[in-house]
Request: fold
Amino acid sequence: MNDMVERLKEAIAVLNATQNAFASKANIDPSNFGKMLEGKQKITDKTIGKICHAHNLSVEWVKSGIGSMMVPATTKGNFFSPDGIYAEDSEVLIGDAVLKERIKNLQQQIQDLQGEKKAWEAERKSMKKEIEELRVKNEEITAELSRTKDKMIDLLIERGK
Reply:
């Protein structure tokens, strides 16, 4: 399944909508939309435009995953929108969806960082072990050099007699 379909499914979940309601709000036939999500029908730029306009989604995010999912609401006022929600309420819903998306992204980043931390800790432990092994080897070599030096001195003393 392609990434754009996955992003559309994510938007449906973030907006707490059903697939049919999501399609209907964008004036798209729900059965055709279902076929699009199944990969049986192409998603056109016109369809993407209708979806993004109806749900305040970023076209760039839907197409490529770049940027924020939601386009900030710019309308203010106390009037009904076509879906029967006060514009102020709609802005709250959009803001809530954006916050939910950000929380989800931050939670994923935390999990990723925790995984990286564990990997670094394992590498640090391995390096400490290697350093200790090298320290022991260094002590052995130093002791061997000291013994060899003592033998050489003894030999020189015997020759000098």
